[in-house]
Amino acid sequence: MIRLQAVTKVYDGTTIAIREVNASIEKGEFVFLVGPSGSGKSTLIRLLMREEKPTNGEIWVAGRNIAELPDWKVPYLRRSVGTVFQDFKLLPNRTVFGNVAFALEVIGRPKAMVAQQVPKVLKLVGLSSKADRLPRQLSGGEQQRVSIARAFVNRPLILLADEPTGNLDPGTSVGIMRLLDRINRTGTTVVMASHDHAIVDAMRRRVIELAGGRIVRDETRGVYEAQTSSREQEPGIPVSSNPSPAPTKQSPPERHPGLPAVERA
Description:
The structure is a single chain. The protein has 265 residues and is α/β, with parallel strands linked by helices. The protein has helices spanning 41-48, 74-77, 96-105, 111-124, 140-152, 170-184, 197-203; strands spanning 2-11, 15-25, 30-34, 56-61, 64-65, 81-85, 158-162, 189-193, 206-211, 214-219. The strands form 2 sheets. It has a 6-stranded mixed β-sheet with strand order 6-7-8-3-9-10, with helices on both faces. A 4-stranded antiparallel β-sheet has the order 2-1-4-5, with helices on one face. A hairpin with a 2-residue loop joins strand 9 and strand 10 (214-219). The radius of gyration is 18 Å and the shape is globular. The two termini are 21 Å apart.
């Protein structure tokens, strides 16, 4: 589904944001990208959505090397990749319905499909009763739900989320995470950058930790902070997406109020 091979991103010829990153993400996975500010999380999200190109390396998304994708084909890529932002990026003069519908209109979907699909996704995110509201009439959590609905209305294979709970209070964040979990359970791959320790610890999904632009930890059922020393990735050496079946025992994570750990076989 997603494969990064020796990916490096350099800004202004000197600032290295991502260094020789190798990783694979399979269909249907829910993956957290964690690490301190400046570690490369947001850069990686921008590379995956093809907002930027890598300086070196290959990025394969749904069978295509998007590092070599011509600019005119990027809109076609984004039909299969939805994106959720920390600051929502809603159209201020469009209603909730209009914001979600816009994602279908720009790719040429017929009006009949728009009329059918938008109400369904608004029901999924719990905003059916607010379809005629403008963004300024909504709370922060409701605006983020609109953003998620817009990202998901085209049923993308992949949903990228860059700090989607960063501007929200803890209670609202729980609702957003439950919604993303529900979307993930439909088969959509979710890749989320986050600095929220409690949410990551409670969800117990795959965690990829970045530091200095490198992957230093990759755990199948990880927590925000490693309980033991992280494995630093050597340049050009892939970090396995399937860690050892006998991981080091960890202390129980702190649970986010109202957000139970998701138990999976």
